[in-house]
Every structure is written in C-alpha cells, then in structure tokens.
C-alpha cells in the first residue's frame, strides 16, 4: 500500500529547465522520530496515517506517495557575497504541493534524501543533528508567530553519514508555502532566460501575491514581506546565520535553518555560524543584508520592466521602502516588548537605550524582556543600577497602563530554543534517545505560557553550557 496525499503540483508543470525530475534515494531502515500532529491537521492530513509504515517509507524516500511529482529544483545564489551560478537542491527532493483545506498550497520536501545532479560532490544526506535542529527551531518559530517553513515529520535512515566522524542519518519532511528563492530568479537571470523569468514571475504572483500586477509590484510585495519578517527575527533575538540569496524565500518565510541560533547574552555583533568568519550575517546586520539580497532580486526582474533606466529607478524606489516598513514594524514589536500601547516621539530612544545597556551588561535577551513583567529584569545586568536608572524613565512613559503586563507577556516569550537545550536534544538523539527532543518541542509549542514545571528551560546556560558556534551540518 502506498500513501496517498492531496497533491496538485503546479511547479512541476513549469518547463523542465526549472528542475530535474528525480525520486528520493531509498534508505536502509527507516524509523520514525516524530510526526507533527498539529501541522498535519492544518494540512488536512491524518497524522495516524503518516505514522504508519507507509507514511514512514514515504518520508524516508523509500516509497513515492500517490500523486507526487518528485524533483530537485534549480537555483543559483550569492553565498557570503560570492556568486555561484548553479546551486540547486543538492540534498532535497520536492515531492509535490499539498492543497490544504481552504485551498492554500504547501510544498512537501524531503531534506537529506540523497544525491541529485546539484549535489556538487556532496553525499546528499543529512545526519540527525541538523534534522533535529531544524525541526525544533522551525516549529518554535511558528509558535512565536514568525513566518517559517515547518517540520511535518522526521525519520531515521538506519544508515551512517560521515562528517568529521560517523553519525546516524535522518531525513526531514519540510513544509513551505514554496521553496522558490531569490536564487531561483538569479539562476535564470544569469542565463538571460527572459522567458523563464516571466514564467517564474507569473507563477510567484499567482501563488503568493495575487494582488500584485507585474514585476514591479512583485518587488514591492516581496520587500514588504521581508521587512516584516526580519523585524520579527530581531524582536526575538534570532540570528539566521547564513542569509545567502539562495536562503531567502520569495514567500517571506524563514527558510534553511543551518547555523541559526537565538541569542542568550545580547549584542548586536553576535555571530554563531562557524563559517561566518567576518560577521557578515551578525544579528545587527540582518536588515541591511536583507536589502542587499532584495537588490539582487530586483535586478533579476529588470528585463521584464521595459526601458532600463526607468526600471532601475522604480526598482530602487521599491527596495528603499524596506527601511520605512522595517522601522515601523520594529518599533511596533519593541514597543509591545516594553508594554507600550501608544506611540510617542521618544519611544525609539527609550528602546535603543535599553538595548545599549543590555549589550554593555551582557544581559540575556529573552530573560530581560520577559523580566519586565515581574520585576526580575535588573538581575540580568552586570550593573543592576544601570537598568534601574533606565527603568525610571520607562515607568514614567508606561504610566502603569492597566494592560501593559498583558501586552508584554504576549510579546515576550518565556521559552525559546536555547542553544544548549537544542544541543542537549541532538546529543541524546545521536545516542538513540529522543525524549529530550520531544520534551523540548512540547515546551516550545506554548512559548508565552509560564509553564512552572518547565522553569529550568527558561534558564540561561551555565558557563560550561554556552554554545558559541553552530554548524550547517552539510
């Protein structure tokens, strides 16, 4: 018996130069780690069916679900600013597009599903670490209200993957509004394939931005979506770690959780990625990198926009709107984080003064903001009096609004996927113990609740638990 899913595969109906048709490479002995029951329900799928041997075989790549049209997508990209004319899905297969109740369309992709023509000498597989990390962090982001790809399931392969050492293999079943990237447009622009660019533009508009009329309106829509997304990242202290153009989704979702991390001690220059040696993708650089990526996207669409000089001027104006949209969204989010429901001219200075003090005092980002609700924030500062001085002005601005605590609790999570807890879950999973993984996922599903029984998961890492570097896993 083969698993049947409600597929309707619009991307697979594009010309063959958009992808390579290929089945996933089967694995030796698939085993279930988890099925995301909540996400399955949102997609209109029966989670119990997904956990059957037929479902596990489909997620491992050992059986192709009925209605699927497996393919590896082609794309290019700038990686740390360096141009790579061909990247593509080197360890992933898009099974197809699930049409959920209400008509929304979602990609179902397998990550770690074996070599493709885009693998570039890689083995096409994933070890269990990056699968566990992406499952935990992407689902935590969804619970925080951040647009993101999702994890539908994770399975073991019964095979060994070699990185620096022998590690157990795994496959992640990832769900996304689509996997179309800035790099997808770059792939065709670099080849001067105007027909493909037009087809791709029309496809993206129909799928993601049906109100957009033409390429300029698409640039405007993608710019606005990315501005809102990056503001949300910043409000939770999230660092993507590898904001290459092939890792920027046109849909406005967070995609490709490699060396990602949530900050413990706040600093705008914080970098976790082991490959980001010069801090290109540091926390504080993320907005300007988004603009850089969007400029690459806009340049791809110029051939569709008529006369060159007016097209450049219009595209530049559209991209420059990022700063306005981002700043407004950032202020809205951070006002809520300090309990403000109204707008005053000095709010930005008040917020930025707090962030400066946090950086100078190595204050924990999440614990400081959550601590504003219960009077514990000062304890996060090396110099508590510095915070108390700031708090006098804050209290004067707050004027003790009746629901300011509720505003802050809704904006400031008690729980984030702290790096040391994620690493704890990965170490246990490598040893075959998935209990810490399931425990952490359960806690992060309701990040704004106090959950007294899980209070230890709110703690910042002890000195010997601090994670200073995170890795892609490829």
Treating each run of at least 4 consecutive H or I residues as one helix, how many helices?
Answer: 15
Taken in chain order, the helices and strands follow as EEHHHEEEEEEHEEHHHEEHHHHHHHH
What amount of the residues lies in strands? 5-15%
What is the straight-line distance between the termini? 33 Å
Instruction: From the alpha carbons, calculate the radius of gyration and give it in angstroms.
Output: 22 Å
Helix content: 40-55%
What's the overall average pLDDT, rounded? 96
Tell the overall outline.
Answer: globular
Described by its quaternary structure, the protein is single chain
Low-confidence stretches: none
Main sheet makeup: 6 strands, antiparallel
What is the tally of beta strands?
Answer: 12
Structural class based on helices, strands and sheet pairing:
alpha+beta
Describe, in short, the structure shown.
This protein has 474 residues and is of the alpha+beta class. It has helices at 37-42, 47-50, 53-60, 128-144, 182-190, 194-208, 215-235, 286-301, 308-337, 347-360, 365-371, 384-398, 404-411, 419-430, 435-444; strands at residues 19-21, 31-35, 71-73, 77-79, 82-84, 92-99, 105-111, 126-127, 150-162, 166-176, 238-239, 261-262.
What does this structure look like?
The protein is of the alpha+beta class. Helix content is 41%, strand content 13%. The protein contains 15 helices and twelve strands. The chain has helices spanning 37-42, 47-50, 53-60, 128-144, 182-190, 194-208, 215-235, 286-301, 308-337, 347-360, 365-371, 384-398, 404-411, 419-430, 435-444, and strands at 19-21, 31-35, 71-73, 77-79, 82-84, 92-99, 105-111, 126-127, 150-162, 166-176, 238-239, 261-262. Strands 2, 6, 7, 8, 9 and 10 form a six-stranded antiparallel β-sheet that branches. Strands 1-3 form a two-stranded antiparallel ribbon. A two-stranded antiparallel sheet has the order 4-5. Helix 7 packs antiparallel against helix 8 and helix 9 packs across helix 13.
